[in-house]
Design goal:
globular, single chain
Length: about 120
């Protein structure tokens, strides 16, 4: 059974940085695309970033482009999300996801495995 566990969330001031990590167990993640999504209170889950199964391609939402960086280490079954210049609007629960994406790395339905999420709170 594939499990994803996120860590690294917490409270940070606006303008600060935070690193999230996601560890995959139960199966090697090398065949999966990996994504990060987030959900703020009262809002739908939205795409944040994704990386292709081989790490050759990275994808970002317009709202985080230039501030967030995704990377993966298949040998450690880990995907990282480095977040810089955080703003209060980045406050949300961040979810890691894994899937064999066939067409759209930004679409939640492309991902079959999800973590429980980690809270990120950015104070103004």
């Amino acid at each position: 059974q594939v499990q994803l566990v996120e860590s690294g969330g917490g409270l940070v001031e606006a303008g600060g940085s935070m690193n999230l990590s996601c560890v995959v167990s139960g199966r090697t993640m090398s065949s999966y695309a990996m994504g990060w999504f987030r959900q703020a209170p009262g809002k739908d889950r939205e795409f944040v970033s994704a990386v292709s199964w081989n790490g050759d391609s990275a994808y970002y939402s317009d709202s985080v482009k230039g501030r967030f960086t995704i990377s993966r280490a298949n040998t450690r079954n880990t995907v990282l999300l480095r977040m810089n210049s955080l703003q209060p609007e980045d406050t949300a629960v961040y979810y890691c996801a894994a899937g064999r994406v066939f067409s759209d790395h930004t679409a939640p339905h492309e991902y079959m495995h999800w973590g429980q999420g980690t809270q990120v709170t950015v104070s103004s």
